[in-house]
Amino acid sequence: MRKIITIALLVCVFTVVSAQNVDDGEMRAAWITTTKNIDYPSSKSLSSKNQKTEFISILEMYDKIGINAIFFQIRPSSDAFYPSKIEPWSEWLTGKQGKAPDPYYDPLKFMIEECHKRDMEFHAWLNPFRAVATIEYADIADSHISKQKPEWCFTYDINKYLNPGIPPVRDYITEVIIDVVKRYDIDGIHFDDYFYPYPKKKDGKSMEIPDSETYKKYNTEFNNIRDWRRDNMNKFIEQVNENIKEIKPTVKFGVSPSAVWRNKGYDPEGSDTRGLAHYDYLYADVLKWLREGWIDYVAPQLYSAIGNKYADYKILVDWWCKHTYGRHLYIGHAVYKASPTSKDKAWRDVNELPKQMQINRKNSNVRGSIFYNTNSFKKNIMGFNDILKNNFYATHVPTPIMPWLEPAVAIVTDTVIVVAVDETAPPSPNKIKVTKLGNRYMLSWKAPKVSGKEHDDKAVSYAVYKYKDIDSDELTKKNIYKKTKKNYIFVKRKRFAFFKKKFKFVVSAFDKAGNESKISKEVIMKLKK
Length: 529
Known about the structure:
Distance between the termini: 27 Å
Number of helices: 15
CATH architecture of the largest domain: Alpha-Beta Barrel
CATH topology of the largest domain: TIM Barrel
Radius of gyration: 24 Å
Largest sheet: 8 strands, parallel, barrel
CATH superfamily of the largest domain: Glycosidases
Structural class: alpha/beta
Number of strands: 24
Strand order of the largest sheet: 3-4-5-9-12-13-14-15
Helix content: 25-40%
CATH class of the largest domain: Alpha Beta
């Protein structure tokens, strides 16, 4: 299918490529940044009512585009966008760190509910080690960890960081994360690219991270501080993953590192690039985390253009596709760089982002995208909103399933421990009916009833299948019309249509382990007025 879109006097012509993996679901996500009010809220002086209104408007924008997941920054600087007994309210939410919203509400609970109403996943994005952003201007409450435990922190450049080399620091951050996992119906925990700080220079010289004393105190097995730092990160990621999966096995855990793991010039396993290496400078060995199964996905921030001489987008996509180790790969896109006035010729090209999406679709190991940033979507930069809506995301799909997240039940006998995976599907949805509402239909159903003993088989989501051939009984993912956590959907009727008038719909149910029920009874809709 060829589409032609005219935007700001520029003509963008491209062919949408659909890889097989899209039929199995695709991550179509956006980051919402709260640090310094970059994306949300637009001002730290907004009332509670205006905060809610603004967040809903963002979701409605993304819903129209086809986004199916939100990665929201709930902890920008060891603070909180939710009521916490561990850390103070964020100044970026209320204007003063430690001050609760007035009138009071729980922003995180509200945001999760609004996302789920629209069948969007909510991933809680936390910056694990940043304690204070821009020390000179930061508003710091007395209850903040940097004041409660100053010995846990070090200053580097203009920021203050929690020291990853101190074991109680890693325990503290894990406690913060698990508090969120326990109390909120989140779909995932997400870290971006910040671990040890990005290298800086002062007076022409590289600044040293001030953790040599910590190294002397806690190191027991490494000959150099660099390997020790990487081991601290390894221990932290493993610890966080184990704790998440112990509490809620189906919560996804992933990381979005910078584009380059290592350059081929330093490591034969590295990419053919010359960029800043996450392994060497931020001490994050993401490939080890993937190999060990400590993270469920990786979302490298491939923020350079196709053909970039230091870090070519296509080269990096191909490299990451070969290093997923069975986990999901999502690509982080720099929507904010696209501009008719960019100094970089590549980013003045309206085709740059669509071409990147085409490259993704040609690689079956790419399971989706995450876009940065929300402000760019508000401006519909280079018409990218319309390109996604009308082309790449024209058809709704759910996020991809991670089969390894199915919860297991341990059965202990006298001689052996057997791990049994829940493979029992919930009963089928019932009482399917169609209600005509103006120019659309509402398709609704009842959740299947389960007894107390079968509580794990309770339906938590549904798939609605649509068939052009009303005599067909083929049940494939290509027939999925929509996935939802609600017990109804709306289907529009069209005044003029060149397709058949009648369509068949059926519904199935999924439990928390991802087991799918048998389909419901069928209903027929006439979609042409």
